[in-house]
Amino acid sequence: MGHDSANVAPQNHRIDSSDVPRVLAPYLQIFTRICRRSFPCCVSASAQNEHGLCSVRMKSPWILLFLGLLLPAPLAQGVSKPNFVLIMVDDLGIGDLGCYGNTTLKTPHIDMLARDGVKLTQHLAASPLCTPSRAAFLTGRYPIRSGMAARGRVGVYIISAASGGLPQEELTFARILKEQGYMTALIGKWHLGLNCEHSSDHCHHPKAHGFDHFYGITLTNLRDCQPGHGSVFYNIHAHIPYSTLGAALATFFFLHATGIIAVSRRLTLGLVALLIVGLALFGLFVLTFPNFNCILMRGEEVVEQPYVSENLTQRMTSEAVEFLERNSDRPFLLFFSFLQVHTALFASPRFRGKSLFGLYGDAVMEVDWSVGQIIKTLERLKLKENTLVYLTSDQGPHLEEVSVHGEVHRGHSGIYKAGKSTNWEGGIRVPGILHWPGQLPAGKVIDEPTSNMDVFPSVVNLAGASIPNDRQIDGRDLMPLLQGRVERSEHEFLFHYCNGHLNAVRWHPANSTSVWKAFFFTPDFYPKNATGCFHTHACFCTEGYVTHHDPPLLYDLSRDLSESTPLTPTTEPNFTSIVEVMVEAVRVHSQGVKPVVDQLSAGHLLWKPWLQPCCSSLSQLCRCERDHQKGSLNTEVEIHSN
Questions:
Q1: What DSSP line would sit under 518-585, residue for residue?
Q2: DSSP secondary structure string, 426-478?
Q3: What is the largest CA-CA distance in the chain?
Q4: Measured between alpha carbons, how far apart are the two ends of the chain, in Å?
Q5: Three-state SS across 228-285?
């Protein structure tokens, strides 16, 4: 007996990224977009996966036939998705590059990217410190939203066996692109955590956040990782409350001398012995610190502990070139995150002494050489026209850096005030260079406010994926601005955090050239006529280290780029109304920030022995050397001496 089709309920055929091979996932996204525009009835608004990305619910088997015809089309026509090479230099000042006005330190390869691409002159890091800035870059969100902005004094990870890190609930552009069929790699610095509960769970490892390949360090390049450069703990005396301790000790001796309290000789000797033991343990901690925290990993394996930094940029450049060669026939994302020019400074032997600015200049030149190697590899593999290259710094230069030998190891902020660890322009205004032949105009300069958080939506959109709608994304797609389809940035307001404290707000009103910036507190510089905190090696955001302002300090950056003269109701007639708008913007923004776990709390920062990575044994102080990458690229003809 035949079937009456009118009496048979139509079946729903649901297709999701998980139902198709990884290589076909990008084409499902293409189909979804076409279906939304042409056949609205075929997409169910409720059919979304856990990240708010689109799933397609088919109400007709004919749509499946259409999908079958659509999927092979890009393959047959040779249409390919763009590749991405994202380059982040550590602590590089905007004034260190030739394309941003430096006339003595030569950076020809980076300058070429700017000359043949787009240069952003008001590109801003979402934080003036490494860890929160990188969290914002990868997720497109203010770090306060992910718990990667500390409420306390310390705002970055300095211990490898700490339990804090970028939460797995956060979506990085690497994870989204991996779902789109991209091969993804992070080479260089991570600085967003490693383990949670034991030494091999790697819950915060780059692989847990979408990177197929990782070759680099999980912390940052600390002074302790370079023999002869001292220790980050040598300056700990600057944080000891001597006045409080002195007052307590004087009170104690006074009470003892007047007979109000009596202290036995045994107790006194015990306290002295305890002090000696404490100092000895601290000395042992500093002595063994490099063994336990200067760690080089390949994938999830520790391959060098402690690492030798002298030729590390050479090795990482070779690793990047090999990744490009292996994946030249498929879409890829390479995030090259330099260890340089963070201290302790280092440069390969071929670059030492080649600049006029000591070891810092040598390191900048080596970075420029490495960028040149990557660009030449893209050219050799005929990938240049299909690859978006982006170069930036995670924040401004560390102005307080002076070596144990008295050598100046800091970068240059150009005309901008202060540097790393502050939200003055020198601490957050960073290089922003984008290069993509045929897609981006050559030689274009854009002075609109942009953020390193903008890379997230830009990359995700270009890869054909959807921006997650289950969370607040603070970045904005840069492509309309870069390509000249719009003249203004989508950022009317940008909020500048010092750790977890909202420090300043920037306002670029519509139909105005003004860029207003209001500070609610500012760091207390030392010495007072300096633009840094040389007594503590970095500026802090907590009480005792800042001065609060009510009303806030107000600047118009369109007239005062150096933030030299705050405005007043006398010098700015609209002072009160401008401040009112900015304060209201802060109120609205703050209401939208949901409480999350502080990943940089004391409990998440402290050393936990059970989380300690160790590639040999404790009796060997975890030492090992089994990295096969030797960095064999030729540097002879690449050096451009001053």
A1: EEEEEE--BSTTSSSBTTTSS---STTSEEEEEEEEEEETTT-TT--S-B-TTT-TTHHHHHHHHHHH
A2: HHHB--EEEE-TTTS-TTEEE-S-EEGGGHHHHHHHHTTPPPPSSS-------
A3: 112
A4: 91
A5: CCCCCCHHHHHHCCHHHHHHHHHHHHHHHHCCCCCCCHHHHHHHHHHHHHHHHHHHHH
Number of Cβ atoms within 10 Å of the Cβ of 525: 17
The amino acid at residue 348 is: S
pLDDT value at position 66?
52
- Percentage of the chain exceeding pLDDT 70: 85
Select which of 109, 191, 213, 435 is catalytic: 191
Higher pLDDT, 407 or 62: 407
Contacts of 269 (CB under 8 A, 6+ apart): none
CB 297 within 8 A of CB 214: yes
| Three-state DSSP class for residue 640 | coil
pLDDT tens column, 296-307: 999 999 999 999
In angstroms, rounded to a whole number, what is the distance separating the alpha carbons of residues 354 and 201? 43
203 is catalytic: no
Residue 258 pLDDT grade (very low, low, confident, very high; cuts 50, 70, 90): confident
Beta pairing class for 450-451 and 123-124: parallel
What confidence tens digit (pLDDT) does each residue in 500-526 have?
A: 999 999 999 998 999 999 999 999 999
Q: What is the pLDDT of residue 239?
A: 60
Is 191 annotated in the active site?
A: yes
Catalytic residue from among 35, 42, 99, 130: 130
Give the pTM. Answer: 0.85
